[in-house]
Amino acid sequence: MMILTDEDILQDIENFKKRIQDAKAKLAKLPETAETWPARKKLDEKRQILTSEIEHVKRLIGIAEGARTDV
User: Fold this and answer.
1) What does pTM read for this prediction?
2) Domain total for the chain?
């Protein structure tokens, strides 16, 4: 069993925030629309994957913050 310190948890939270920033940057770089239906479908899929990543990591941050003992 691995024991995490508050410092470990804070580092994880910072890494999670970086993941969110990276996903938001990729999301911002996506074009608004695509010309063909297959291209739009692929674009929507990429958008959904990045949005899901952001929401997932936000939940991980919530769990990590709940695990801290120095709060």
Assistant:
1) 0.88
2) 1
CA distances from 57 to 3, 11, 13, 16, 22 (A): 21, 14, 9, 6, 11
Residue 10 lies in a domain: yes
Closest CA to 62 of 12, 24, 19: 12
Domain membership of residue 54 as a residue range: 6-67
Question: 6-29 vs 37-67: helix axis angle to the nearest 10?
Answer: 160
For 7, other C-beta atoms within 10 Å of its C-beta total 9
Q: What is the pLDDT of residues 39-66, one digit of tens each?
A: 999 999 999 999 999 999 999 999 999 9
